[in-house]
Amino acid sequence: MQLRVALVAAAVVSVSAGGRAQQAFTMEQLLDRATLFVEDLVAKLSRVVSEEQYVQEYLLSTPEGSRGSFLGSPKVIERRTLKSDFLLVKPSGLDQWFVFRDVFDVDGRPVRDRENRLSKLFLESRDTVTAIERALEIGAASAQFNIRQIGTVDNPMLALGLLQRVYRQRLRFTLRGRDISVGPNVWVLEFRETGRPSIIRGSGNRDIFAKGRYWIDQERGELRRSEVVFNALGTETTTTTTFAPDERLATSVPTEMHFRRAASTNEVRGIATYGTVRRFEVGTEETIQK
Length: 290
Hints:
The protein has helices at about 25-45, 115-125, 130-145, 160, and strands at about 10-15, 20-25, 50-60, 65, 70, 75-90, 100-105, 110, 170-180, 185-195, 200, 205-210, 210-215, 225-230, 235-245, 250-260, 265-280, 285-290. The protein is of the alpha+beta class. Residues about 1-20 and about 280-290 have low confidence and may be disordered.
């Protein structure tokens, strides 16, 4: 999936517990730092394959009470574990970047040979467009292994895509203050999509507007957490990603993703974690232990 961000500026002053101003900055400056972080992250993660373990659950609410007068709390009725190769690619000469997932194991059962299909596509293909098209086909086939049909927004990089400069005028931002539980200089920035057509399209090419939050280190612009929410056809879908520093890659990278798609009587939940990553280039491959 390729995405890119937006921005509205407002003056902000950080105030310490004692009431004295520590540092003044504008929301535009904070967003600029976050956008630079995203650009650097994409450059460093491009052509890096990560192993993803993704545990999904399907929950169902059943009638309870006198004559089934109300729905009880959702109960887990099915669970599935997917293991995949997860890859981000930013082809040379293109502004877009793409994220691909290639499932190789479902509930401990191999569903294909454990080969680096995605990386080989971009190493061996001389036609980037053809490689991207083939990788998208692999991603669509992998989505069929999901516990239910949940679309493609279960992507740990999705919210980061909205922080690209091209989308800035399509989002409205609000600064909500610091969250010291995440970090001493981490600010929560709320966003809501306002421009039409929407960046993410639903079935029938309908508008589906995004909203959510970013937890941004004010000094370095690093993301510590991201959250993006979509509401459509009676469902609410939320994808939340946690980031942590990776010394070998010299940046903060996704370490865990929480996914939730809730309707009135059913729900899909998922937790994905990211382990060993492998950097690949033409003629070489390096294993990076997390």
